[in-house]
Design a protein that fits this description.
Layout: E1 2-4, E2 20-22, E3 44-45, H1 52-56, H2 58-68, E4 79-83, H3 88-99, E5 103-108, H4 113-118, E6 122-125, H5 130-137, E7 144-147, H6 151-157, E8 167-169, H7 173-178, E9 182-183, H8 190-199, E10 207-212, H9 216-224, E11 231-235
Parallel strand pairs: 4-5, 4-7, 5-6, 7-8, 8-9, 10-11
Antiparallel strand pairs: 1-2, 2-3
Helix pairs in contact: 2-3, 2-8
Bound molecules: NADP nicotinamide-adenine-dinucleotide phosphate.
Length: 237
């Protein structure tokens, strides 16, 4: 979530009432609320340059995109394949890849071609024949597969990895491990890092829709169909 501090717990020194912040809600609390609670140690000051809507996407999707593109260090020019490139995590991961000058291949449905290509990635349509199409775009194999879909879609693309250990999944750890890869590991530093990158306008969180709190059920339904583009954010009045 992102918002403005209205009260402080005992011993909090890094923030003051009135500060704009972003961060994951404290365990046991929710973000679908006008007021909620953050653990000060996990919160980050919200830079003025980042809107509240964009800021709200960073603690989960943004930080995941950051970790997913850094868990295995790639060099400029190496190939990063993102499975699920048009979703909330995928679009940010593709843009991080562009910042590092990786050769990014984004796999998504045809309807997301434009939005994926806007990140600078090479678009590959998901569905039957996806592995052949991806192989055509990366004949030498792939240096990192960031999986945001899992299951059969991941199994089909896994052979493109130069080494199974470079398969990292945020969506389906068990399948990634079965294939020789691993589950994405979240780090504490990722939130500050992605906040800085977005502050300098190097990555756009791509908020595709804003819903008022009263329409939270519609917002959830739009995400649960599994084909969201970018992020959907709830806005408090
Ligand atoms: N471990 C963590 O901390 C963490 C944090 C955040 C997210 N996640 C997980 O990471 C995954 C992605 O999150 P998200 O927020 O980016 O989800 P999202 O916004 O719903 O995006 C998922 C994307 O996958 C695409 N997709 C679905 N089936 C596909 C297929 N067969 N081939 C290619 N693309 C396909 C969908 O679009 P189209 O099919 O329409 O192209 C959609 O754009 C979720 O499983 C989420 O639970 C984990």
């Amino acid at each position: 979530m992102a918002g403005t501090v209205t009260a402080l717990g005992d011993g909090v020194e890094d923030f003051a009432i009135g500060d704009d912040v972003l961060g994951p809600v404290a365990p046991g609390y929710g973000g679908f609320a006008q007021d909620t609670i953050l653990d000060a140690s996990s919160a980050v000051a919200k830079p003025e340059e980042i809107s509240f809507a964009d800021a709200a996407t960073l603690p989960v999707a943004g930080a995941t995109a950051y970790d997913g593109t850094h868990q295995i260090e790639l060099e400029k020019g190496q190939v990063l394949l993102i499975l699920g490139a048009g979703g909330g995590v995928g679009l940010m991961a593709a843009q991080i890849g562009r910042v590092h000058q990786f050769a990014v291949i984004g796999v998504a449905s045809e309807s997301k071609r434009e939005v994926v290509e806007e990140t600078g990635a090479t678009f590959i349509a998901s569905g039957p024949g996806v592995a052949d199409r991806a192989r055509g775009a990366a004949p030498g194999g792939v240096d990192l597969i960031l999986d945001l879909v899992g299951g059969d879609a991941l199994r089909e693309l896994a052979p493109l990895a130069q080494d199974p250990a470079v398969i990292i999944s945020a969506a389906d750890g068990p399948t990634a491990e079965e294939l020789g890869g691993s589950q994405l590991v979240r780090t504490v530093e990722a939130l500050e890092k992605i906040t800085g990158v977005v502050e300098y306008n190097l990555v756009d969180p791509h908020v595709s829709a804003l819903y008022p709190l009263e329409k939270a059920a519609d917002a959830l339904a739009a995400v649960e169909n599994g084909h969201a583009t970018g992020k959907i954010v709830l806005e408090m009045r």
